[in-house]
Write a structure and sequence with these properties.
2 domains, Rossmann fold, alpha/beta
Length: 254
């Protein structure tokens, strides 16, 4: 395993910025900082499915270099793809500080995969700028983002918002669509499943499970039946499942 990671380091060495191109051990993984997250904080969402279009390109171009940005845990990895995370997952080659600029030279990558990652970043527009910087002219980015407000999400863009973010950074949109694993079925199942999960009282959970689709769509949103369940949600779940949020802020005096 070490020999394979040493060979991979030599392959990517010219793409790494200093001082990581002169790593004393000459192998992966490389911790670029001590300020990374703990794997336990991400265990529930670390394992994820690979995206076939990206994997097919990586396999079809064995002499080109690719980046899986926010890789999580991958069941399989490729020698011409660098795997980057903010915590030491088993797949990660580079472990970086959250919200950092990436230690990869400009114009060195043929493709970047970024799947269900951007919503976890505080400044997603900077990540897109970095993707554009690292890609060769004509390089491609393969991107996926959910549209729900999971607790650790900062920004969730619509399809139009994603197109705008990328095109404002010099990309031409080749495709923008809702995939088979991103349909309304997933939205409905996720919301109802999480709602039921957060109802600690067994009787309340039972009552909630007895509601029909007809009950839910016909009830007024302020109906006392809804509030019976809503009032039982802990604050973090109330936020997690929210349709929207309000904010009032005051400009600093200094």
């Amino acid at each position: 395993m070490r020999d394979l990671r040493t060979a991979k380091y030599e392959r990517f060495r010219s793409a790494l910025q200093a001082p990581f191109d002169q790593e004393p051990n000459r192998t992966f993984p490389i911790f670029t900082t001590g300020r990374h997250f703990d794997l336990r904080d991400y265990e529930s969402e670390s394992a994820n499915h690979e995206v076939e279009m990206f994997v097919n390109l990586v396999r079809a171009c064995p002499d080109e270099l690719f980046l899986d940005l926010g890789c999580g845990y991958r069941e399989r990895t490729f020698e011409n793809c660098l795997y980057l995370e903010v915590y030491p997952s088993r797949s990660a080659d580079l472990i970086v500080e959250p919200n950092c600029l990436y230690p990869i030279r400009s114009g060195t990558l043929s493709g970047v995969g970024c799947f269900a990652v951007l919503e976890h970043t505080r400044k997603p527009w900077l990540v897109i700028e970095e993707i554009a910087r690292m890609l060769k002219p004509g390089g491609q980015v393969f991107f996926l983002q959910p549209v729900h407000g999971y607790p650790s999400h900062y920004f969730n863009a619509t399809r139009e918002g994603l197109i705008s973010l990328f095109e404002d950074n010099g990309f031409k949109t080749d495709m923008a669509y809702t995939g088979a694993h991103q349909t309304a079925a997933y939205t409905i199942q996720w919301i109802l499943g999480r709602f039921a999960h957060h109802l600690i009282d067994p009787q309340l959970r039972h009552d909630f499970s007895r509601l029909t689709v007809s009950d839910m769509v016909s009830m007024d949103q302020q109906d006392p039946v809804w509030w019976k369940f809503l009032n039982a949600l802990p604050p973090d779940a109330f936020s997690e499942l929210a349709c929207g949020n309000m904010l009032v802020a005051t400009k600093a005096t200094t």
